[in-house]
Amino acid sequence: MVVVLDxxxxxxxxxxxxxxxxEVYSEILPWDAEPEEVLSRSPKGIIVSxxxxxxxxxxxxxxxxxxxxxxIPILGICYGMQMLAHQLGGRVVKAPSAEYGRCxxxxxxxxxxxxGFPEEFTVWMSHWDQVEQVPxxxxxxxxxxxxAVAAFETEGGRISALQFHPEVAHTEKGTLALANFLFGVCxxxxxxVLTDWVDRMVESIRTQVGDDRVICGLSGGVDSTVAAVxxxxxxxxxxxxxxxxxxxxxKDEARKVMETYTKLDLNVKMVDASDRFxxxxxxxxxxxxxxxxxxxxxxxxxxxxxxxxxxxxxxLQGTLYPDVIESGHQGKGAAVIKSHHNVGGLPDFMKLKVLxxxxxxxxxxxxxxxxxxxxxxxxxxxxxxxxxxxxxRCLGEVARERLDVLREADHILQEEIANFGLYDSLxxxxxxxxxxxxxxxxxxxxxxxxxxxxxxxxxxxGMTADWARLPxxxxxRVSRRICNQVRGINRVVLDVTGKPPATIEWE
Length: 507
Ligand code: XMP
Known about the structure:
By secondary structure, the protein is an alpha/beta fold. About 35% of the residues lie in helices and about 25% in strands. The chain folds into three domains: about 1-185, Class I glutamine amidotransferase (GATase) domain (Rossmann fold, 3-Layer(aba) Sandwich); about 195-380, HUPs (Rossmann fold), CATH 3.40.50.620; about 395-495, GMP Synthetase, Chain A, domain 3. The radius of gyration is 26 Å and the shape is globular. It binds xanthosine-5'-monophosphate. Xanthosine-5'-monophosphate (XMP) binds near residues 338, 384, 462, 499 and 503.
């Protein structure tokens, strides 16, 4: 395994994912993790990420001397390179100008991390500080057009560093540089194979759970579904799943999701609690109050249902690795923008032990495991859908009639997006219903009705997003179909805001 030490880069998770794509297991720890914690994992290599600081500043992240002298191969990327150069006696300065985006790099001295590279190649850079002088005894492997050091290694190659980002797709042969480090320098073996992981995890669930019964709240999303299929492979019908229809799902969604669950042979009970949710939401308009109300009703419903499952000792959750990292060391002191409601965020009084088989995995790995387990591809590729459902897309009061209007409009958008073959290229696309009425005219008759918004975004991870440039013909078709076919909407508008400054959902 390889440890990635996070110095605050936006690409840290990408580094860990790339390493895993090369079939080497990787974990992320904060840069200031105790050296014992790092060493207890017996890593074959350590990668130090980029970061926003300057390594010569007071209090900037640095590598503990213990790790530096541990004999474990180390790779520094961007900030990681500057930090290593500085700590090993080289000189780091602020460059006269920054290097951002695509840059050309020339090989100075072939071999090492750059084995198999052409003499000149394109990379992705994002830095201001630069290494002016490499540490004593180190050799420069490559330089950028400006002459700045782009890669170096110490004598023997145990410590090496790249100024550019090998994990970013724009870097030519970036994967080769990582592979050279993992296999050439660290001597890693390709042991992170997901089919083996499934077999191991099924065994581990069996051992952990023994003869107990497990309950699981299915949300219709990828994570809880894959967790449930995996667990049911291990313990069969001793997994009892509960799918709560909160009345805030999209058109026909509850029925379709249940069909998939049945095909997947899951032992699942659907609970139609839509009346309870809609009753509780009456008069609630403020976004956070909506989220809170939905969360509370969900907990009550789930608790009642699960108390009917005899002898349940475990609660299965679809927690993923990014959630684990986030609650562990990132996002400390961050402002609450939206209180996310996820199925499974249950209070302590339920006194169940938590089973989280996916907690070491990234989303793309969960999708691949879903495919190995026979979850239909269309299901695995579904866009994310928020726990509070249409409530956060139906601005103003969440009344049944308005939800129906929104469902119809959204359904038309989904149909056209599919007709134009755009579904897979978008992170999300959906309609929002605004409680804003405007005047229109249809067949000589005055209308006074609400407004639908088309929201479509492209994104890698939902943290940042760009609004999608949908074709005019598509927008035109959607707009005309919605106004003609959905009673209650007479105007369609397009959201052209990125995240930031907006968020993807409207509430
Ligand atoms: P925002 O609106 O914060 O959303 O830009 C980022 C991503 O998260 C999804 N989202 C949620 N997912 N529970 C979830 O499981 C929630 O409460 C929730 N709120 C937003 C949103 O759809 C987008 O993909």
